[in-house]
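Lecture notes, unit on protein representations.

Consider one protein chain, 240 amino acids long.
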Amino acid sequence: MSIYKISFKQLQQQPVISEMLTALENGLHKYNIDFYLVGAVARDVWMTAINDIPPSRVTGDIDFAVFINDKNTYADLREYLINVEGFIPYKGNGFVLKWKNFVQIDLMPFGEIEAKPSNITVEGTALTSLNMPGFKEIYDSGLPEAELEEKHRFKFCTLPSIVLLKLIAFQERPEIRRDDIKDNSKILKHFFDMYADEIYENHSDLFGDKDINLHWIAARVLGRDMGKIALLNEALFLRT
């Protein structure tokens, strides 16, 4: 996988988040936790930073999937980030922390912590239980890396992974996930141009028809890549 060099300006993010990323990395490294970037900022890495496509909407939330083997490790990480690094707990969601009241960090655990029960629970109020289908399969399928301002390096979702997670989220809570459909439509609109080299090299069988529809080809390739991820888990594949 490639390592992409990106800047705060390309991500439409303020350089002040560098301090937050340093504090977060301190905790993740302390407990030897691997992680990757998901959600809108991962989308913006691909579309805005790498491919120079203006964002349709800028988010103040930054979502990380964190590879956790047991519940105690997640609790220790959260306690360390609050008591040592200065993060602030968010009363409405046990999986969310605030950084100096202007950046919201979602820390979504996956891995062995998911084994039993299927829902991940944490101490707290309001939302304290999560189900994270697809996160481990995305991790196992291989992730690219980004280097931000030569200070921070992290793995991040591929576009097929982002679309897959958005479809799962929409399936579970369609009433509050309407923006996911808009995001997926924009990704599909630009997908062929962003993946052109790979499509021509690995999906030449889709060009047999004289009346070539590039959006149709992009959708087929996107579906193929999503299928490869879903096939790593039979239950996930049957669901999608």
